[in-house]
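In the design runs reported in the main text, the only information available to the sequence generator was the tokenized backbone. The following block is the verbatim input for one such run; it is reproduced so that readers can re-run the procedure and compare outputs position by position.
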């Protein structure tokens, strides 16, 4: 007697492997770029961010698909955050900190005036966002750059949903105040 599994089992295993492979490819396609941007903000280095994302997807390959499907985004961002923070701590201990610039995506051919205005506004917003405490920056980026819900953000950052809401509210309020204060006021001439 042979100890090999029946042909029907082999076919089912092959189909399941193919289905899982497609699911993982779809996850990589959907989440690779957002995870890389998120990890980049944590690590400050594109290569370390890519490594954290790669480790995240490698861990996904060993996870049970059925268990992951309902909270895939939360799980991916949480694991990626953990990997990125670990990498950042390791590099910080070693004394090597590198900064990389992120490239702004170009829009669909606005007028030159709009381009300048958008750049100035975006620069001001990013500078203002960069002046916020790290926890406020992180939750605002997860919400607006990566589209996560408060509950998902709470799961990723290990904060309460209420705390996430407070941090986002406080951060946005600070950004609005700083942007309004920073706007140039028209100069009136006396004649």
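Verbatim output:
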């Amino acid at each position: 007697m042979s100890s090999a599994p029946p042909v029907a089992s082999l076919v089912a295993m092959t189909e399941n492997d193919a289905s899982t492979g497609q699911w993982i490819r779809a996850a990589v396609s959907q989440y690779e770029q957002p995870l890389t941007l998120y990890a980049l903000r944590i690590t400050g280095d594109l290569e370390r961010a890519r490594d954290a994302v790669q480790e995240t997807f490698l861990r996904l390959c060993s996870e049970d698909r059925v268990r992951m499907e309902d909270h895939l985004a939360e799980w991916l961002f949480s694991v990626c955050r953990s990997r990125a923070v670990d990498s950042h701590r390791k590099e910080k201990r070693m004394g090597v900190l590198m900064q990389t610039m992120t490239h702004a995506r170009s829009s669909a051919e606005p007028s030159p005036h709009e381009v300048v205005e958008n750049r100035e506004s975006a620069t001001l917003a990013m500078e203002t966002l960069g002046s916020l405490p790290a926890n406020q920056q992180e939750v605002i980026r997860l919400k607006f750059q990566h589209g996560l819900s408060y509950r998902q953000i709470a799961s990723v950052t290990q904060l309460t949903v209420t705390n996430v809401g407070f941090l986002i509210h406080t951060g946005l309020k600070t950004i609005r105040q700083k942007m309004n204060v920073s706007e140039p006021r028209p100069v009136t001439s006396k004649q």
